[in-house]
Write a structure and sequence with these properties.
Elements (H helix, E strand, L loop, with lengths): L2 E6 L3 E7 L8 E8 L19 E6 L3 H11 L14 E2 L2 E3 L9 H16 L6 E6 L2 E7 L4 E9 L1 H11 L17 H27 L6 E5 L3 H4 L8 E2 L3 H13 L2
Helix pairs in contact: 2-6
Pfam families: Pan_kinase
Enzyme class: transferase
Organism: Ideonella paludis
Amino acid sequence: MSFLAIDIGNTRLKWALYDSPRPGAVIQAQGAVFLETIDELAEKAWKHLPAPTSMLGCVVAGEAVRRRVEEQLELWDLQPRWVVPAAQEAGVSNGYDHPMRLGADRWVALIGARGHVLAGGPPRPALVVMIGTAVTVDAIDRDGKFVGGLILPGHGIMLRALESGTAGLRVPTGEVVRFPSNTSDALTSGGTYAITGAIERMGRHLAELSGGEVPRVIMTGGAGWKVAPYLDMPHELIESLIFDGLIHIQAYRGR
């Protein structure tokens, strides 16, 4: 009863093969490739894998990329299935004005985070932060309702925008410091503090909504490790959050 989870972001495709479609399942194999090379999956990374029994994927890169991945999945007799945000699933309700317009990755991450919250103790609010090409900061209340969230540029987009729109600035290799005294450090520190400031502000909003209860902060994404050290609030970095969400959805649907 092996299960293949696929997360197709704006830059990379990540995949993991689990021994079963249930929370706590053991990873048998995993990998990541840039979108430019996904047409090689069937001949390289997936060639010697045992055929999965089922799969579920999350895709934000667009329909053309999804179709390319489905062509690679023809390696096995496997029906491709992709998460579409809904009004409710796996114990999480969707408070977006138009639920189906919520990004699939945000929806899956919310479900994964809710699973971690309930596995760790009584229900409590949670802040779900994804840091990649873009940054999302989403709030879920103690009842499992997604109440809203922020979208802002990732660090790379911020720096490239400054480079293209401001004479004399170049993408830096600076450090994050409290009082930057050179341009490289100023750019790196500014981008990092813009992201952490948005997270901390949303954390305050969610705490106020929750009657003062401090939310659990769960962070994920390829660039999460760069930002986490500068976040002035308790948090945890869970790299597998999207996969965790996919497993929770699969287990919920299979009940």
